Amino acid sequence: MRKLRIMILSAALASIFALTACGDDATPAATAPAGDTAAVAETPADTDNDTPAEPAGPPARDLGGLEITIATWWTDEDSTTADPQTALERMRWDDRIMLEELHNFRVRTVNMGGWTETRDMMPFEIAAGNTDIQIWVMEPTWFSTMHGQNLFAPIPLEHFHPDINWNQSVMDFTMRDGLPHAFAMGTEFAGGIYFNMRLFEEAGFPPDYPFQLQAEGRWNWETFTEIARSLSRDLDNDGINDTWAMSSFNQDFLDRALASNGAAFVSVDPATGAFINTTNTPQFLETINWVVQLREEMLAMHEDDIGGEWNFFIDAFNSGLSAMRSAGHYVASGQILPNLDDPWGFVAFPAGPSGGNHYSWVTSNFNAIPHFYTAQEVDDFMFAMYLWNRPLPGTDDDDWMFGEYARHADPRSVDETMVNFTRDPALQVMPAHQMVPGGIDVGPNWAWRVWAGNDPATIVEEAMQILNERLAQVNTQLGLTD
After folding, report:
1. One pLDDT digit (tens) per residue for the chain, 482 residues
2. Is-contact 154 177, C-beta < 8 A?
3. CB-count burial class (<10 Å; 0-12, 13-18, 19+) for 86
């Protein structure tokens, strides 16, 4: 096993810019579905054999040459065309090829022609009974309208095996008559705060201060605000900040601030499935007040402050103009790693006073099966999806960390932040407003106005009326209210 892990680490470090997140591929095996005889096969410790282990036990479940086509808007790929770039990716595809042969099935993804084309064709193709596609992938906002038209098949709960993170939020949001009508295999890593150690040290803090606060349980809004006041510095006394505490995409920061404080734009009525406006809660207003305060004290940079474009925050952080940036996990490699020469770290978003923990909003594409497939066909599809994404035999539950070490400048970003916070499904909140068909204009109605320094109570009052009208319209269209 040690030799296997060293091989994986070496390959990961050698292919730093080609890495993709391994996600939940390395989740330890628990209960495998009936018929998955290969799921219990393990690679013996200290072996030189990197190929998947041969199955043992009774005959494997035969899917009879089943072909499953997954419709996407971004890729064409199957076991004959996949081009793995890392050791773990190669192991994944070797395992899939073995399972396809063992269980007599094939999975392929197809590009349906782009985001808009896929969105527009999906309801028509399902309504027409197109059996060329077994699983459709969609953004959350696409789902509700089609769900209201009864276009998706129910998925019995026994198909969601505990050794894979099937994203409980997706299951909860898509319930009808006690059964989910969509699934997602895992979630994106939650975002957090990237910080520049040099700027922290120059402002009089230990360079790893956010790591220290996080480890001590003191990384919260209060300490964030305190250190931000020292990080925003006018070094030449001309009334203009020479360094800023933070630069972030306005909506990106607001989303995480709301999640960290237990607030949300929208919730779903568990009895009716109707969308409910939750911007009138104390936690919501408390969050808006805090973000406005950051702007009023010139602790958070705005594009107007530097005459930049909407994406000013990328260069501002990478050039050392700002000490912190709130962003998703994906920016670690590609945006920050190749461009920031200073030492830097990654911590969870600070906990809000009403939230109590380091929650972060995440998103995930939905996967749904058309309604015209039989219960047995749904069973076969979901069994194949389990095999396709099962825990890899012969790997440890921390193998995903190798790729993440290559993405980050400091190993504590992985060991202390990602392990404890960003990978924990219990701390990942998938907001219900992502499912509102057509969206709710979070940017212009909230984020843009908050960052412009408008009165918090006025923002909430005016935007709440707009949201009430929007949700009433959507709930009526979906047949969820009279």
Report:
1. 433 343 333 333 333 333 333 333 333 333 456 666 554 443 333 444 455 555 555 688 999 999 999 999 999 999 999 998 878 889 999 999 999 999 999 999 999 998 999 999 999 999 999 999 999 999 988 998 898 889 999 999 998 988 888 888 888 888 888 899 999 987 777 889 999 999 999 999 999 999 999 999 999 999 999 999 999 998 888 888 899 999 999 888 999 999 999 999 999 887 787 899 999 999 999 999 999 999 899 898 887 877 778 889 999 999 999 999 999 888 998 899 989 999 999 999 999 999 989 998 888 899 999 999 999 999 999 999 999 999 888 777 677 788 889 899 999 999 999 999 988 888 888 888 988 888 888 888 888 888 887 888 999 899 999 999 999 998 988 887 76
2. yes
3. buried
What does the DSSP assignment read for 235-273? TTSSSS-SBEEE---HHHHHHHHHHHTT--SEEE-TTT-
Tokens 């919501």 correspond to 284
The values of phi and psi at residue 327, to 5°, are -160, 170
Return the closest-CA partner of residue 161 out of 34, 289, 64, 16: 34
First and final CA of the chain: distance in angstroms?
61
**How many angstroms separate the Cα of 429 from the Cα of each of 191, 192, 232, 400?**
11, 13, 30, 22
pTM: 0.78
DSSP for 200-241 reads HHHTTS-TTHHHHHHHTT--BHHHHHHHHHHHSB-TTSSSS-
Residue 132 DSSP label:
T
Q: What is the largest CA-CA distance in the chain?
A: 78
CA 23 to chain centre: 10
Helix axis angle for 400-407 and 87-103, nearest 10°, is 150
**Which residues are registered as beta bridge partners of 370?**
152
Within 10 Å of residue 85's Cβ, how many Cβ atoms? 14
